[in-house]
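User: two proteins, same treatment. go.

Assistant:
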Amino acid sequence: MNADSANDVANAAPAPGNPGSSEPLSFDYAQELDLADPLQEHRDAFIGSDDPALVAYLDGNSLGRPLQASADRIGSFITEQWGSRLIRGWDEGWLTLPARIGDDLGAVMLGAAPGQITIGDSTTVLLYKLCRAAVAARPDRREIVLDTENFPTDRFVLQGIAAECGLELRWITPAYEGGVTAAELEAAVGEHTALVLLSHVAYRSGYLADVPALTEIAHRAGALILWDLCHSAGVLPSQLDNWQVDLAVGCTYKYLNGGPGSPAFAYVRREHQESLRQPIQGWLGSDDPFRMGEDYQPAAGIRAFTSGTPPILGMLALQDMIALIESVGIEAVRSKSIALTDYATDLYDGVLAPLGVQLASPRDSQWRGGHITLDHPSFREVTAKLWEQGIIPDFRNPNGIRLGLSPLSTSFSEIWVGVDAIHQAL
C-alpha cells in the first residue's frame, strides 16, 4: 500500500507517544507501534490474521475474528462429546454451561459475583424478557425512558412493550457525536418512570456512558435501569455489582468472538431475581424441568430467566475468548483499545480532516469506547471500494465509516492501511 499520501502530511498530527524516530503519520511509525505493543503476539491466535487477501480488518465490533482454540474446541466437541456421549451430555454438564460461562464472564470483565449472569437467546429476546419483567415490577409507573440514538433493536423492543402494556416512551435526544448525559437523564426521569434503557457504549458514536452516575439518577427516581453492554463487553472493564446496576444485556459475537449469531448474556442483580418475572415461560426456566409438570413454577435464581434448550454449540467459542482476556487482563485490553482509537484519531486529524471528513465520536478517550466513527457524504461508496480491496470497516447510515478496533486482534498497521485507503478513495 502506497505510503506517499500519509507521508505528505506527516507533521500535521501529534504522535501518540512516539516509540521511535519515524514521522507520526508514516507506515513505518505504525509498524513501530506494533513492535512496541505488548499484546501484539496474541494476533497469531486468531484465524485469518495472516490472510493476504484480508488487508485490514476494522470491523471487530460487529463480528470478531475466530480463535484457533475455538476451532479446535468445536471440532473436539462434535466428535468427542456430541458424537460419543450423545444425549448423556445433558447430564454431564451441558445444562449447566450457560450459568458456568456466565459466572466466568462476570468474574473476568463484568464485575459480577456468581449466580447473576446466564447465556442464551439473542440480544433481542433477552432485552424483551428483562424489560418486560422490569415494567411489570413497577405497575404504578407508566413511563419508559430511552434515547433516540440507541441501537434500533433496543428502541423497537421498547416500542413494542409500550404498545403491549399501554406505556409511554420518554425520549432523550443526545448529541450526535455523544450520548446521554447526567443532566439529560435527570430532566427525563421522575415519579412515573418505571424503566430506563441506555447503552454503555453508543453503537454509532462510541460514546462511553457514565454508568454509575446515570444508574444513581434512575434509582433516585425509583426506576429500574437496564444497560446494553453489546459494544463494551470484552473491550473495557465493567463493575456491574459495584455500580448497583439492576439489569444488563450484551451480545457475544463482537469483542467476545463467540461467532456469528452466538447467544447473548443477561445480568440480573441478585436482589431482583425473586421479584422479577420474565414473560417467556419455557421448560428450562421452571423449578424442575424434568418433572414435566402441568403448571409453571419459576426456578430459583438466575435460571428463572432462561426459557428453552440452551444453544450449546453457539456458546463454545465464547469460552476461549474469556480465557484469553483473563490471561491478558481486561485493564490491559482497555489500555490497548485507547491506544488504537487515539492513533486512529491522530491519523484522522492529519489525513482525513483536511478533506472534509468529520469526527463523529468523542475525542477524549475518557468518553470513548472501542471504536470511532468518521462521517463524509461519499462514505457509502468508499466503503464498497474498500471491501473490494480487502479492507473491511463498517458503514453506518447516513454517511459514517465506523472503525471497530478489537484490541487483541487489530494492529496499528491495519489502522494506517485503512485510513490511507480512505484518504486515497477521497
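Protein 2:
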Amino acid sequence: MLKKCMGDPSFIIPTEDIGIKDSLSYEDIPVQILDCQVRKLRTKEVASIKVLWRNQFVEEATWEAEEDMKKRYPHLFETAEVLDQGTNSLLSTF
C-alpha cells in the first residue's frame, strides 16, 4: 500500500554538483592490470590483459585486448614496464 509522502526540499542535491552527463552515463576508469595472456587462434595470436576497473571487485575484472587498452590508457603500461625493468635488474644482480 502506498503512502503519501511530503518531500523535503532540503534533501534535493543539484545535479551540477554531482557532474552527471545528460545521457546519465559515466566513464569507467581502469585501475590496474591483474594478468595477461596470449591466445592462439588459427592464423594469429591475440594478447589479452585482465583489467580491474574502478568501483568493481577483483572477481568482476574483465579481459580486454592489449592493443586497444594501450591506445586508450597508455599510463597503465608505463608502470608495468617500470616494474618489469626493476625485476630484470634484480635478476641480473644474482
